[in-house]
Design goal:
Radius of gyration: 18 Å
Number of domains: 1
Order of helices and strands: EEEHEEHEHHHEHEHEEHH
Number of strands: 10
Distance between the termini: 32 Å
Bound molecules: adenosine-5'-triphosphate
Number of helices: 9
CATH topology: Rossmann fold
Helix content: 25-40%
CATH class: Alpha Beta
Largest sheet: 6 strands, mixed
Strand content: 15-25%
CATH architecture: 3-Layer(aba) Sandwich
């Protein structure tokens, strides 16, 4: 469903994402794990057609994310790391706007918006301006926007970063529900317990390089580490940092 072929990004002389080769299968929840500055957001922005790759390609459902971004957006729901809304639109109006941008009629957009506001516990805030929403509410509104057109793929950049435990659990439950409906999910995070709860498979990216891929058990075995994902993650990223670079 998602196919990376030598995708890379160079800023000046700095390799932010080194040639990335990876396949994410249909229906999979794939965790893209890495510390700050590893290259997660840069990779996701290339998937969304926001950044131009320096080399290589990424395809979603057979479509090239760089040359066919509009078609890709029809199939994909995207939650940016910091969702930004028009501050002086109300929650309801934002969903209405996003739905109409996806081509739904005014009536259908209103119906879809109302359904998602209810599903995401935002009914009571529907008439409030987004500028007054808490971070947790903004992430939920962002997810509602991402889901409004029934996408087959969700691409989420740090969806629970900065949320309190209740808001974080809430978002994770909604993601599990989407996964249960068969949505393919590509989620970046540096929060390892979320990866343990949600992901079928993970990839660990460090200094722009994918240093391990597999199920958590496979990665533990490969790293010859037992214990928590945190232990495995620290071991793998320490080893990658110690390896000489060309
Ligand atoms: N426009 C830019 N120009 C130069 N360097 C950049 C630019 N954008 C990002 N970088 C660098 O590229 C690297 C990867 O950044 P990126 O934002 O993709 O990391 P990340 O894994 O998403 O980290 P975080 O969790 O901190 O957001 C970082 O070292 C960052 O400083």
């Amino acid at each position: 469903m998602i196919e990376f072929q030598g995708l890379s990004k160079v800023y000046g002389g700095f390799d932010a994402v080194k040639p990335l080769n990876l396949t994410v299968k249909r229906g999979e929840v794939f965790g893209f794990l890495g510390p700050n500055g590893a290259g997660k957001t840069t990779t996701i922005r290339m998937m969304m057609g926001i950044l131009v790759p320096s080399a290589g390609q990424v395809h979603i459902d057979g479509l090239d994310c760089h040359t066919e971004p509009a078609e890709v957006k029809r199939r994909v729901g995207y939650l940016p790391d910091t969702p930004i809304f028009y501050d002086y639109l109300r929650g309801r109006e934002i969903l209405q706007f996003v739905a109409e941008m996806h081509g739904y009629s005014r009536t259908e957009a209103a119906e879809r918006g109302a359904r998602l506001l209810a599903e995401f516990g935002l009914q009571e805030a529907a008439e409030d301006y987004a500028v007054n929403y808490s971070l947790g509410m903004k992430k939920r509104l962002g997810l509602a926007c991402a889901l409004i057109h029934d996408p087959v793929v969700l691409i989420l950049d740090e969806p629970i970063n900065g949320l309190d435990p209740r808001a974080s659990r809430d978002v994770q439950e909604r993601l599990l529900a989407a996964a249960a409906r068969g949505v393919t999910i590509f989620v970046s995070t540096h929060l390892l317990d979320m990866a343990e709860k949600l992901c079928d498979r993970v990839g660990i990216i460090h200094h722009g390089q994918l240093v391990a891929t597999g199920t958590l058990d496979e990665i533990r075995a490969e790293a010859s580490a037992s214990g928590s994902l945190e232990d495995v993650f620290l071991k793998i990223t320490d080893e990658a940092a110690a390896e000489p670079t060309e």
